[in-house]
Amino acid sequence: MRYLRSLITVAALLPSIAASQSSRTQIVMLGTGTPIPDPDRSGPAVAIVVDSTAYLFDAGTGVVRRAAAAGRNGVRAFAGRTSAQPSPRFDRVFLTHLHSDHTLGLADVIFTPWIQGRRTPLDIYGPPGTSHLVNSILHGYSEDFAERLSASGGPSPDGWKATVHEIVPGIVFQDSRITVRAFPVLHAGWKYAFGYRIETPDRTIVISGDTRATSKVDEQCRGCDVLIHEVYSDSGFATLPPERQIYHAQAHTSATQLGDIATRARPGIHPSPDRFRRRCSSRGGARIAPASPSAASVRTGRPSPAPPASPGAIRALRRSATATSDGNRSCGRPRASACRSGRSR
Ligand SMILES: [Zn+2]
Asked: Hey, how many other C-beta atoms are within 10 angstroms of the C-beta on 171?
């Protein structure tokens, strides 16, 4: 029963270090956990790093410390003056929805980088209700930042602030490096839950957020390079009481359904659970997934010799979803999938 839901990340990993050094986009899986307090998995959070600027998607528990770990592992966006003292910095956060496991780290993202030197307010993009959440956080910590601001040599007078942008579907942010487009997904009783399509100079990435199976994801992904999608294991689902099965069917995506989505979506990268399990190290730190042009040559879909929706591929997805317990491990060069497990909300 403990085990039910997983998140598969269909991630582009570089085939060589040289390729990573020339690419402009990195995907850093800072957390792949669920509400279960698994010490091996931080809460959901993905950083898309373009030219050393990080854009954060969701802010689960532990996000800032996982970013610090990524800094130590060579992600320049999170590196400090010395490798021993990484200084994660976020200027923008995009929330998929307001479930607590996706937002418990938000206070950390607001305050910790400020204490470490951020001078400007954090921009937070999220569904309606985000303003209430952020204002509540700021109100709750008012004694903290008042004391810090009054201290001699204290942090910036403005860096503790947050500017909230409550979003609707469409382009929600654009700068010279990145375009972020929100699209609605279907997640249990949430009126507003979003996935994101992110376009960078050399990559298109789709993040599903929490969602039940929906064609909206594969419609956004078609032609994309990387699809990051949640999933639960079919075998775990079968162990749930009927009322929880009803909930999860409304809230999340099964491995079988994800196989069908991947077939339709045709992301540039094929999940390779067996390789993942064999090659991922357990040294800790965040997953680092630099993009590379060659990654796009690995195709999914039925025209492929190994379509992901084949029975074998589905079994592989199920194995991945049920056997992998690697949330924050550092994955090296092979293309891979990451999973998170546990009961979710
Ligand atoms: Zn959720």
From this structure: 12
Ligand 1 centre from 99 Cα, in Å? 5
Q: Into which CATH architecture does domain 5-338 fall? A: 4-Layer Sandwich (3.60)
58 alpha carbon – ligand 1 mean position (Å): 11
Residue-range domain boundaries for the chain: 5-338
CA 114 – CA 117 distance, rounded (Å): 5
Q: What tens digit of pLDDT does each residue of 260-314 get?
A: 999 999 998 644 333 333 333 222 222 333 332 222 222 222 222 223 333 444 3
- How does 126-163 read in b/e, with b if 16+ C-beta sit within 10 Å? bbeebeebbeebbeeeeeebeeeeeeeeebeeebbebe
Distance from the alpha carbon of residue 135 to the mean position of ligand 1, in angstroms: 21
CA of 152 to the centre of ligand 1 (A): 42
- Model pTM score: 0.78
d(CA 63, CA 92): 14
The separation between the first and the last C-alpha atoms of the chain, rounded to the nearest angstrom, is: 15
Pair 341, 12: CB distance under 8 Å: no
